[in-house]
Write the structure tokens for this entry.
Amino acid sequence: MSTQSFRRLPWNRARSAHTGDPDLALLERLRSGDEDAFMSLVALHHDAMLRLAATFVHSHAVAEEVVQETWVGVLRGIERFEGRSSLKTWLLAILCNRARSAGTREARSVADDDIVATVDASRFDAAGAWSQPPVPWTEEVEERIGAAALRSEILAALAQMPERQRAVVMLRDVDGLRSDEVCEVLELTPANERVLLHRGRSRLRQALEDVIGVAGA
């Protein structure tokens, strides 16, 4: 978007009611047509937006396009932001809608969320107790998490998750959103958000245990 186009946008000068939002100062500058404020917002939120877009589409190039389209939509619709949520949550909700549309042909069936077990059933005995308990996460294990090989396993596990599980885990554990914010962005009920987060974290833990178990054998 050109500087001239940016300056011609119809800004609403009304203030946001979400005073706890750390982006509020940038938002007010943005509504005043401050292009530097826009660039600052992009720098702050671009990576999180790209990560979320990538959970809905398989191509990095398409994810980048979704993010760019979202920023254009944000600029054109900033007057509709009423401050009922944080600016970041609002941005991610807009992106989520665009990413869903872009990934319609690529999206995996969300039914997988309901039929894929998060832990191998053979690890439990007849009474439902662990027959093969999880490996304790010691300091030695924590050090291994930083290894490049383990990182690749985590990324592979994320890539294999159903779309909604992956999005919830990324928003909660990577971007640090609260449960209510994730529900707003992804249009989930609190119960669904909790289930998806539990299942996604269980898959990641299983992936880590598989690698750590081999390394520690």
Summary: The longest helix spans residues 190-216. Confidence is low (pLDDT under 50) at residues 1-18, 107-117. The two ends are 55 Å apart (CA to CA).
